[in-house]
Design a protein that fits this description.
Layout (H helix, E strand, L loop, with lengths): L4 H31 L13 H12 L9 H25 L6 H30 L3 E2 L32 E2 L4 H12 L1 H4 L3 H25 L21 H27 L11 H12 L9 H29 L1
Antiparallel strand pairs: 1-2
Helix pairs in contact: 1-2, 1-3, 1-10, 3-4, 4-7, 7-8, 8-9, 8-10
Length: about 325
């Protein structure tokens, strides 16, 4: 298996790109729901996921759901390649399978640590772009003043009736967004929320791969001790679809509160931030701003995304892996 690490990297890269194309509109709605509500980004208020979808479509059309898609395309191409490549390498060297839970948990945590280094700055850019970055006529007020204490100098892109007539809203590109973050906080600003990201990826990976392997084993679709070492074999390929969907749903469910807190931190104002850092954000959000169930606002969009998105991701990965594995 160790001779085919490059196959896992290639298959993971293609799988990540396909999943992003399928699932990104769901993520856009999720992010706007997380950033909305009291003490969130002012001006973003929705009655629920469907209201958010309708409002977004009316104001920006279908392309609006893909605003900020560039960072996650890069993120998923690199991150998912690393995810699957590292998983297969650790599975081979540590026997990180369901039959060896400590090794499985350790490998998932190691992978999560590596993923967070790739994901955090790209997640930060994506979040700010998704909740609509704007500018003001005031030259001293920089772009990306999201969730600040001066709503007269901030416009949230949630509909024409909520716009400040004194400001003009505009879509920011990824480069401009990055420049504003760097201007405000330097390179460390790109990694705002990194401790939360690490915990999120570690916890999510344990749920993702445990569920995927468990469902495959239930359907008899994978032989952990066989030559494919856990990859689906024979005619049991249909099991990839429910296994991928359920694995994705488990991933989002267990780490969603951390993702919600991270979103609020990464969409905080760059000019007058409400949170002093990750720990301060966790404390304020959980103690003063949101109840436990409110931390799951927007989860339905992630679960809806997981059904097609994660199924497509695992299927593309296994398809590409099997194709190259056979020909090698």
């Amino acid at each position: 298996m160790k001779d085919y690490a490059w196959i896992s990297l290639l298959a993971g890269c293609l799988a990540g790109i396909c999943e992003t194309i399928v699932g990104f509109p769901f993520d856009t709605v999720k992010t706007r729901l997380q950033a909305a509500s009291k003490d969130g980004v002012e001006g973003l208020t929705y009655r629920g996921p469907w209201d958010c979808v309708v409002s977004k479509f009316k104001t920006e059309g279908i392309l609006g759901f893909y605003r900020g898609v560039t960072p996650p395309l890069v993120q998923e191409a690199l991150g998912v390649a690393f995810l699957y490549g590292a998983r297969d390498w650790l599975r081979e060297h540590l026997n990180a399978t369901l039959q060896n839970p400590p090794a499985l948990v350790l490998s998932c945590c190691l992978i999560g640590l590596g993923e967070s280094i790739i994901y955090c700055p790209l997640d930060h850019l994506k979040a700010r772009l998704q909740v609509a970055c704007v500018s003001s006529e005031d030259e001293d007020v920089r772009l990306l003043e999201l969730g600040g204490s001066n709503p007269d100098k901030m416009v949230a892109d949630a509909g024409p009736e909520k716009e400040d007539p004194k400001a003009r809203s505009e879509s920011l590109g990824v480069i401009e967004c990055a420049k504003e973050i760097l201007r405000a906080n330097g390179w460390r600003g790109l990694y705002l929320g990194w401790p939360i990201q690490v915990a999120k990826e570690m916890l999510g990976n344990v749920a993702l791969f445990s569920t995927y392997d468990l469902v495959l084993s239930f359907f008899g679709a994978a032989d952990m001790n066989g030559p494919a070492h856990g990859h689906p074999v024979g005619e049991s390929w249909l099991a990839i679809w429910p296994a991928g969907s359920l694995a994705g749903m488990a991933y989002y469910t267990v780490n969603y509160p951390l993702d919600a807190i991270k979103t609020r931190l990464q969409t905080d104002s760059l000019i007058q931030p409400k949170y002093r850092g990750s720990a301060d954000c966790v404390w304020k959000v959980t103690q003063h701003e949101l109840g436990f169930f409110e931390l799951y606002r927007g989860l339905s969009m992630c679960l809806a995304r997981a059904i097609p998105g994660c199924a497509v991701q695992f299927f593309v990965f296994e398809l590409v892996f099997r194709t190259f594995f056979r020909s090698s």
